[in-house]
Specification:
282 residues, alpha+beta, six-stranded antiparallel beta sheet, 17% strand, elongated
Length: 282
Amino acid sequence: SSGINAEYGGNDSLKRRVKKEGTGPNLAQGQQVTVKYTLMLATGKIVDDNVELTFQLGDGEAIDALDLSANLAKVGEIYEVTSQSRFAYGTLGRPPTIGPSCAVLMVVEVLQSEETPSVSDMTEKERIRIGDRKRRIGNYHFARFDYERASKNYRGACNFLDPPSYKLSDSSVSDELRDLQAKTWCNLAFSELKQEKSEPGIVAANRALEIDPFSTKALYRKGKLYEQKGELEEAEKALKMAVKVDPESQGCKAYLAELTKKIANQKKKQQRMYKKMFNLEE
């Protein structure tokens, strides 16, 4: 059978054309896929030349143009995909080489694919390899201000770095893994804060603090999330703890003072309101 040429999303948003047939079954969601690709702009300017990349298919690690088009590919296949910006780097672009709303062309060779073992069958080293890769991709998107994609990758990382304990036969954790767990949850708390998702952000900050109770970064972010949620007293609690942990932290001290002042103002406002309600004289 000839390779699949396909269009997605109408208006030619994403077009795929097979240049060399592959063999075997199509790649499947969740697999670890390794490709070699070249990415260029509509002008023909090459941005990425012959880059080798391993990513988990369908998990938001790769740009959509690659993630969606690889679904139809087989190992050994070479295909090209032309993509409008919404399946590539969107309105944010990828400074300094790709501007906002830029269409791209990719030539992709599928080198190999393998099933991702279930977390319970992985060694700690394997979990770190995949989890840390996802964490770094999260950091990359955070730096591009694409917080939604950052959160998606941080969550993906936590699935490997810090899965529910019932999935693990061995509950011992190395210092390296513990450090990565705390960092990733703490970063997730920050990217949720940036999207004004205070509830899931607080959950992430709390998990970071279960792993590392003395993380002033996690305490500070927890405070910011509670403030965003409108719970100033809870925010103040987190910052008091942060200052207790690190009395030298100017940032934490300044933020605590700011919160204490806001709480006092809020109380004054409430008192004025009650007085008005009950028609009391000032």
